[in-house]
Amino acid sequence: MPVAALALAVVALASQPNLSKLVLKPSSVAPGYLMVQPPDGKGRAQRTLDVCGTKNYPSEALRTARLQVDYGKPKAKILLSNEVVVYKAGGAAQAMREVAEHAKNCPAKPIATEGLPPLRYTYTRLTDSKLLRGSLVFRMVVSGTVKGARVHGVHFLVYQRFGNVLSGVYTYASSSVSEAAQERFALHAAEASAKILRRGGRGGGIPA
After folding, report:
1. What tens digit of pLDDT does each residue of 27-49 get?
2. Helix, strand or coil for residue 201?
3. What is the value of pTM for the model shown?
4. Per the domain annotation, does 162 fall within a domain?
5. Angle, vertex CA 150, rays to CA 146 and CA 154, nearest 5
6. What three-state secondary structure class fits 202?
7. Would you say 167 and 160 are in contact if contact means Cβ atoms under 8 Å apart?
């Protein structure tokens, strides 16, 4: 390898943030929660964005690194996932725009996504002043039929960006959990993620 190319490769490697330091600590999610990395949680083989389907997300090709981890504990009624992704220059901002556009214009009809039958997705935009500027918070309602059975679920999705790093926080709750409780749980974790991203940016670990 030519010396110049080698030098560029070293610089690129050094500029990549340590994603394990940018995901939430279990203690930041809730007492007693543990962190588990799913088999497809590392690398770009698994897609990041699927708000209102998986089509028309060109920012997926701009990702350079990805880490997703899950949090839970025995008998937990709310589970949470945190996904942190690094993009090429401008990619994280583009991803945020794509998510906002998909949520805003999601049609009132079933949408097919990878691994699931067509279901209807409804997104309601929420806000939280403690999150990073430009953050996207959604209450997502999923409804439809799976294998002949009616399904209805409520989830909360939070997307934040600092420089070229995007952090997504997603919740999954039992039907016995109130929407208000699930929302508080999601925003508590998202606020902790915002603090991590800010610290990473100030420390020079996140590319601008």
Report:
1. 999 999 999 999 999 999 999 99
2. helix
3. 0.90
4. yes
5. 95
6. helix
7. yes
